[in-house]
Design brief:
The protein is of the alpha+beta class. The chain contains 9 helices and 4 strands. The chain has a single domain, classed as Alpha-Beta Plaits.
Length: 149
Amino acid sequence: MKQSTFILLKPDALKRGLKNDILEYFKERDFHIVREDIVRVGEERILNHYQEVIERIGSEDFKQAVLREFVNEVVHVVEISSEKGDVVAWVRDLIGSTDPAAARPDTIRGMFGEDSMSEARAANRMLRNLIHASDSDENVKNELKLWFE
């Protein structure tokens, strides 16, 4: 049975021209693109996307960092699918640790990442880690609705 998940290629990935490399990485592992779109990010949508993290961290600085990093920038949103196992968990394993400096070298963030959590914190900005992937089936549904409808 095919399962799908949501990924978002962040502005840093697009500015570095990594879109095709990242999508090819998934295709080589038997993922198929169900749908995709290029989206210019507005404040309301990105705050909705990061709402849970903003609330958990509880920092106005983090909220402002999200806005600085995303508003009026372009992202590439993609629904990908595969017939192999737990797609949500598999994709998250393939993208690697949130901190690219700690990611395994065979993951997207390990291969292409240039930032680190310590650098981002020192600069009081968002971590530039290339890609977001849904972390649960519920969030897949919510994020697909947020970005594609």
